[in-house]
TrEMBL record:
<dbReference type="InterPro" id="IPR036188">
    <property type="entry name" value="FAD/NAD-bd_sf"/>
</dbReference>
<dbReference type="GO" id="GO:0016651">
    <property type="term" value="F:oxidoreductase activity, acting on NAD(P)H"/>
</dbReference>
<keyword id="KW-0274">FAD</keyword>
<feature type="region of interest" description="Disordered">
    <location>
        <begin position="404"/>
        <end position="456"/>
    </location>
</feature>
<keyword id="KW-0285">Flavoprotein</keyword>
<dbReference type="GO" id="GO:0005737">
    <property type="term" value="C:cytoplasm"/>
</dbReference>
<dbReference type="Pfam" id="PF14759">
    <property type="entry name" value="Reductase_C"/>
</dbReference>
<feature type="domain" description="Reductase C-terminal">
    <location>
        <begin position="338"/>
        <end position="408"/>
    </location>
</feature>
<protein>
    <submittedName>
        <fullName>FAD-dependent oxidoreductase</fullName>
    </submittedName>
</protein>
<dbReference type="InterPro" id="IPR023753">
    <property type="entry name" value="FAD/NAD-binding_dom"/>
</dbReference>
<dbReference type="InterPro" id="IPR016156">
    <property type="entry name" value="FAD/NAD-linked_Rdtase_dimer_sf"/>
</dbReference>
<dbReference type="Pfam" id="PF07992">
    <property type="entry name" value="Pyr_redox_2"/>
</dbReference>
<dbReference type="InterPro" id="IPR050446">
    <property type="entry name" value="FAD-oxidoreductase/Apoptosis"/>
</dbReference>
<dbReference type="InterPro" id="IPR028202">
    <property type="entry name" value="Reductase_C"/>
</dbReference>
<keyword id="KW-0560">Oxidoreductase</keyword>
<feature type="domain" description="FAD/NAD(P)-binding">
    <location>
        <begin position="10"/>
        <end position="315"/>
    </location>
</feature>
Length: 456
């Protein structure tokens, strides 16, 4: 640890999931010897979320068995099952819903996201209506899948909705997917791979309805019976899974003075939170799904990422910077990456596919079900997505990091001879049911500010 590092004092981490745990471990690894407290709204110790829509819903793993492995003992006070309700920025205290106040010298905000609920609260309470975000959510839904429902309705065809639909078909359950946009995954991967995903789902027996919305959930005697669609159709179903994207957990920061809003908590590349006037704070840091940060590879636009790897990498950077002096701090510049397993395919992404104007299938083809699609923006490579061809992604990572020209030059023996770029067709998120797992949130604040000028 550098000589000027701050190894003592009180650090509070709000958010006891992946980012919070990895930050706590990094703090101890790098020599922090002070008081460490982790606050978590859920009663469970930190656990892994990706298996919830994969192994748990398939019945291969119990929801109770997805705990995160501990790299080391963190010697912390754990306050689980209690929600943070406010932040006293100037008094340097976290306020808890149980009335307790936690003083801190440095704070890490890692509160993540929650599932966006169905907008009609009465319908959302019907027996048979689910969201999947927590361990308990997945456990309850897995039990219902095991009981053999007649039909499942999935509302939203992003990655979560598509993985749930895949689990249904693998278990032999009839499933209908309703998506307001033109295709599944289109909000994350654009038109070419969206069209491929639509063909893949229908080939596996999914009743895919695109360009429609669910206008209402219907029930009888407190139980879900079906749904009505905007095209006049009706779906009979005894389970509906709401997969409408995520809501960032920032409400507890309202009135705190931080730059926090629906798109996350804004921070610099060193994970230091901004206040509402754009001034960087010295002792408040952000990491994981709730963070909104600039990335030089993407024109310094603010990025919000719902990715496992980003949560780990950003948490480690934030923890390092919390106890390091200025010259020893480092930026969070990891190239975004994520993966999904659905319908027998392994989909992996590097970069930001939505930050693009063109795409080219550089290897393989949609017809063979194995391909690499490369995305470009204004003549440079910005992303690549592989379908059952993940070994090539490291090559494209280097092209992204070096701002290599788009379309990329020949790099593989199986490159199609007529690989012509086409528009990437990334739709406006407003026309989608699902939310993107990578959100380019631009340069603008979340709300208009009244500038307070000192009197002269």
């Amino acid at each position: 640890m550098p000589a000027e590092a701050r190894s003592d004092g009180r650090i509070v981490i709000v958010g006891a999931s992946l980012a919070g745990l990895r930050a706590a471990e990094t703090l101890r690894d790098e020599g922090f010897s002070g008081e460490l407290t982790l606050v978590g709204e859920e009663p469970h110790p930190p656990y892994d979320r990706p298996p919830l829509t994969k192994q748990v819903l398939l019945g291969r793993v119990r929801a109770d068995d997805v705990g995160l492995p501990r790299r080391r003992a963190v010697e912390a006070r754990w306050k689980l099952g209690v929600r943070a309700s406010g932040l006293d920025l100037y008094g340097k205290k976290v306020l808890l819903a149980n009335g307790e106040q936690l003083p801190f010298d440095r704070l890490l905000i890692a509160t993540g996201t929650r599932a966006r609920p169905w907008p009609d609260p009465d319908a959302a309470r019907l027996d048979g209506v689910f969201t999947v975000r927590t361990r308990d959510d997945a456990g309850r839904l897995a039990e219902r899948f095991a009981a053999g429902p007649r039909r499942v309705l999935v509302i939203g065809a992003g990655f979560t909705g598509s993985e749930i639909a895949s689990a249904c078909r693998e278990r032999g359950i009839e499933v209908t997917v309703a998506e307001r946009g033109p295709a599944p995954l289109v909000g994350a991967l654009g038109g070419t791979l969206g069209a491929f995903a639509a063909r893949m789902q229908r080939a596996h027996g999914v009743d895919l309805r695109c360009g429609v919305t669910v206008t209402g959930l219907k029930g009888a005697d407190g139980r879900l019976t079906g749904a009505e669609l905007s095209d006049g159709g009706r779906i009979d179903a005894d389970i509906a899974v709401i997969a409408l994207g995520a809501v960032r957990n920032t409400e507890w920061l309202a009135g705190s003075g931080l730059a926090a809003g629906p798109r996350g908590v804004a921070c610099d590349a060193g994970c230091r939170a901004f206040d509402m006037y754009g001034i960087v704070t010295d002792d408040i840091f952000v990491a994981g799904d709730v963070a909104r940060f600039p990335h030089p590879l993407f024109e310094y636009q603010m990025l919000s990422l719902e990715h496992w790897g980003n949560a780990v990498a950003q948490a480690e950077v934030a923890a390092h910077n919390m106890i390091s002096s200025g010259p020893h701090r480092r930026p969070h510049l990891t190239v975004p990456a994520f993966w999904s397993s659905q319908f027998g395919l392994n989909i992996k992404s590097i970069g930001v596919p939505t930050f693009s104007d063109q795409v080219v299938v550089a290897q393989g083809s949609p017809e063979e079900g194995r391909l690499v699609a490369v995305y470009g923006y204004r003549g440079r490579v910005t992303a690549a997505v592989s379908v059952n061809r993940a070994k090539w992604l490291e090559h494209y990572r280097r092209l992204i990091e070096t701002a290599a020209p788009f379309p990329p030059g020949p790099g593989a023996a199986d490159r199609p001879e007529s690989a012509e770029p086409v528009p990437s067709d990334v739709p406006d998120p407003k026309v989608l049911s699902h939310g993107p797992t990578v959100a380019l949130t631009g340069h603008l604040p979340d709300r208009r500010l009244t500038l307070v000028r000192p009197g002269g």
